[in-house]
Specification:
This protein has two helices and six strands, in the order ββαβββαβ. By secondary structure, the protein is an alpha+beta fold. It has one domain: AF2212/PG0164-like (Elongation Factor Tu (Ef-tu), domain 3), CATH 2.40.30.100. Strands 1-2-5-4-3-6 form a six-stranded antiparallel beta barrel. Strand 1 and strand 2 form a beta hairpin.
C-alpha cells in the first residue's frame, strides 16, 4: 500500500504573465523544501509531482511543478476551480494537497 502525504497551506493566486496566462499558488518555501527533500525522487519531467488538490470543497487531480528560479513548487489552479471557489488574482486561500 502506498501511503499518501497530506499538506495544508495558504497562498495567494497569481497569474503568469507569459503565453497562456496560467494561474498559480506558490507553495511556502519551507513546505517546498520539505517536499523536495523527501519526494524529489518521485518527480517526473520538469520537477512535476502528481497531487490531489483541494480548495474549500472543490477537489481536482493536478500536479505541482518545481520552479527553479523561485525554489518553490507552483500549484496551477484551473479556471473551473477558481470560478467555483470565487477566486481572483490576489485572493489568498487555504489549500490542501495530497501527494
Amino acid at each position: 500500500m502506498i501511503r499518501k502525504i497530506h499538506y495544508e497551506f495558504s497562498g495567494e493566486i497569481w497569474q503568469y504573465k507569459g503565453p497562456g496566462g496560467w494561474f498559480f499558488i506558490t507553495l511556502p518555501d519551507n513546505l517546498s523544501k520539505e517536499i523536495r527533500e523527501a519526494l524529489q525522487w518521485q518527480e517526473e519531467g520538469w520537477g512535476r509531482l502528481k497531487v490531489v488538490a483541494k480548495i474549500d470543497s472543490f477537489e481536482w487531480k493536478t500536479a505541482i511543478w518545481f520552479d527553479t528560479r523561485a525554489k518553490s513548487y507552483l500549484l496551477p489552479v484551473k479556471a473551473e476551480i477558481r470560478r467555483k471557489a470565487n477566486l481572483e488574482t490576489g485572493n489568498k486561500t487555504t489549500v490542501s494537497i495530497l501527494i
